[in-house]
Structure formats: C-alpha cells, structure tokens
Amino acid sequence: MRISIITPTYNSEKTLRNTIKSVIRQDYSDIEHIIVDGGSTDGTLDIIQEYNAHISKYTSEPDHGIYDAMNKGIAMATGDVVGILNSDDFFESDDVISTIVGTIKNNPALDGVHADLYYVDPLNTNRIIRYWHTRPYPSKGFLTGWHPAHPTFYVRRSCYEKYGAFRLDMPLSADFELMLRFIQCRGINIQHIDKVFVRMCVGGATSKNVMSILRGIKQCRKAFRVNGLNAPLLYPIYRLFPKLSQYVCRKH
C-alpha cells in the first residue's frame, strides 16, 4: 500500500527541513512524498534539492494559496491513501505511517483514519500549547462542533476522485468543508486512532487573531450551507469550547 504525503510550501526555509526529515524517518518505506511550492524566494528550493533523493515529486510555481497547492498535490498523487503534512508540521513519531497502513489493511472497509495533534511553540517544538484529542465520530457529527484535525486526516485517494478536492472560495476553512463533505455528507467510513500523529506549530491563518477566528467560523457556516446543512444557532460556541479546553487538557 502506497501512501502519498503532500507538503505545500511557500518561503518555508525555517521549518521545511524538519518536515522532510520526519518523513524520511518513518519506518514504512512505500511513501510518495510530494512537495508543491508556490514560487518561494527564500532558501526553500535549496532544501528541496538537498533532499531530492527522498522526494518523489515536486513543483514550484505561483498558486492561489495553500488549498490550491494541496489540490495540485492530490492531482499528482499515485498512492492508495493521501494525507497532508504542512511545511511547518512534522510527525510525532517514526511509526505514524505504518500505524495508518496497519489500521486500514486490518479493516478493508475503512476509507480513512484521523488521530490526535499537538500544537507546539514554533521556537520550542518540545513545548506543547494545545492537545487536540479529536475522539471518534459522534452521532450528530460536525453539528456538535466536532471535526478531525486535518493534518492527521488520511483517506483513500478514491475519495478525492469520487467527491472532489478543496474548494478555493473558503481560504480559511476549505479543510473543514472537505472533511464535512466526505464524512457527514458522503458518509465515508473513518476511524479515530488514539495516537498523536503530528506536531503543528501555532500561528496558522485561522488563529492569528480574533478577526481571523470569526472569519473562519463564518466560512464554516458557509460550508454547512453549500452542503445542504443548517448550522445550529449556537454553533460558534460548540466549535470554540472544545478548542479552549485543549489548552487546559494538555497531554505530556
């Protein structure tokens, strides 16, 4: 079983090396690592060349943002299962991919898996800021404020072929919309793995400030709407409360 890992990059020289090395260290060999660069002007391309022997495919050209880059990577992927590892993220352990493969092989009916995530200080990645324990898919799904941590979301490539890739009209919440579409609306069969897959540096576009958070929630409401669902009136509270609790319930 081949696993395609897509890494979108743009001026990522400070973090990309750790991302690539965490893929190289995986104890599973059949990995297709695809890097999609948005036309970096720093040392990103030098790092890609440095690790060229470990990178299956890469491209560097202007794009329309991170989700456009992800879509390009999905189109390039040949693996049975596809996941995203952003250029400032890295795997928590060397057995993440083998865990994914083992879980899916043991249950051929599974379409995908998701797991847990550490948000870490970008200046000290040993310092955990938040612990995102996603839990298995609840009965009311996304309407309760639940959704998987996208960097831990690995699904069969056939799901993208059947149900489409990321929408580019939701620059803050396209990952949320895609998972909502796949899981809640199309009913793909997913399993939660009680394991931390990824360390993710804090400071993403959706959490830079209050306005970004509010815009993200607005786009999540749009995601419900375009998929024929009505978000609950209290959805912002349902969505934010679990996130706040992640700062308290940190797992070390």
Keywords:
single chain; 252 residues; alpha/beta; Spore Coat Polysaccharide Biosynthesis Protein SpsA, Chain A; nine-stranded mixed sheet; 9 strands
Verbal overview:
With 252 residues, the chain is an alpha/beta fold. The protein has a single domain (3-248), classed as Spore Coat Polysaccharide Biosynthesis Protein SpsA, Chain A (Alpha-Beta Complex), CATH 3.90.550. Helix content is 35%, strand content 23%. It contains eight helices and nine strands. Strands 1, 2, 3, 4, 5, 6, 7, 8 and 9 form a nine-stranded mixed sheet that branches. Strand 1, helix 1 (16-24) and strand 2 form a beta-alpha-beta unit. The model has no long low-confidence stretch (mean pLDDT 92).
The gist of it:
With 252 residues, the protein is α/β, with parallel strands linked by helices. The protein contains 8 helices and 9 strands. Helices cover 35% and strands 23% of the residues.
SSE diagram, text form:
Layout: E1 3-9, H1 16-24, E2 31-37, H2 44-50, E3 57-60, H3 66-76, E4 81-84, E5 89-91, H4 96-106, E6 112-121, E7 124-132, E8 154-156, H5 157-163, H6 174-185, E9 190-201, H7 210-226, H8 235-248
Parallel strand pairs: 1-2, 1-4, 2-3, 6-9
Antiparallel strand pairs: 4-8, 5-9, 6-7, 6-8
Helix pairs in contact: 6-7
Structural class: alpha/beta
Overall geometry: globular
Summed up, the domain count is 1
Q: Which CATH class applies here? A: Alpha Beta
- How much of the sequence lies in strands comes to 15-25%
Quote the distance from N terminus to C terminus.
Answer: 32 Å
Order of helices and strands: EHEHEHEEHEEEHHEHH
Roughly what is the average pLDDT, rounded to an integer?
A: 92
How would you characterize the largest beta sheet?
Answer: 9 strands, mixed
What percent of the residues sit in helical stretches (DSSP H or I)?
25-40%
- What is the CATH homologous superfamily assignment? Spore Coat Polysaccharide Biosynthesis Protein SpsA, Chain A
**How many beta-strand elements?**
9
- What would you report as the Rg, rounded to the nearest angstrom? 17 Å
CATH architectural category: Alpha-Beta Complex
CATH topology: Spore Coat Polysaccharide Biosynthesis Protein SpsA, Chain A
If helices are DSSP runs of H or I spanning 4 or more residues, what is the number of helices? Answer: 8
Low-confidence stretches: none
